[in-house]
Amino acid sequence: ADRSIARTRASGLTQGEPAIDSSQLTARQQTMEAVKKKQLEAAEKLFAAGDLRKAKMHVDMAVAMDRSGACPEAQRARAAYRVLAAANSNKGDHYGVLGVAAPPGGRPTKESHDAVKTQHKALCDAFEADKSSAAVAGALKLVKQAFAALTDIRKNEGAVPG
């Protein structure tokens, strides 16, 4: 009896709840995938309408439903909305757009330059995989602009060349 209770708890079922067979699990997974897709579509429509806050909320719901991490579109959209939110809240904060801490004193260092390059590459790799989303395309454009601004030696006197 103790083993069946342990298996029930491990499976996430509560006492008295019927076990789910594999065909039901597949149907449940398909339903969750459809709901995640609808959340992402709603986010895209809200983004097109200019409501970034609500669009991000829908993306966050899609990510929350993706417990297994099997929906890279949701993760990519979340990263895009973080970039877009950073660009909206802190105009001109290129470090914030890339999600990198600004160097102390505002002068670029070798470490900050390396962090900028690493984060730029990671975000571009993630965003370039999804060309269909306007939000992701917008975020990719902002990431490239931030990188260009932070690595332009003429603008950042004393910057460490790459």
From TrEMBL:
Organism: Aegilops tauschii subsp. strangulata
Region annotation Disordered: where it falls in the sequence: 1-28
Domain of life: Eukaryota
Name this protein carries in UniProt: J domain-containing protein
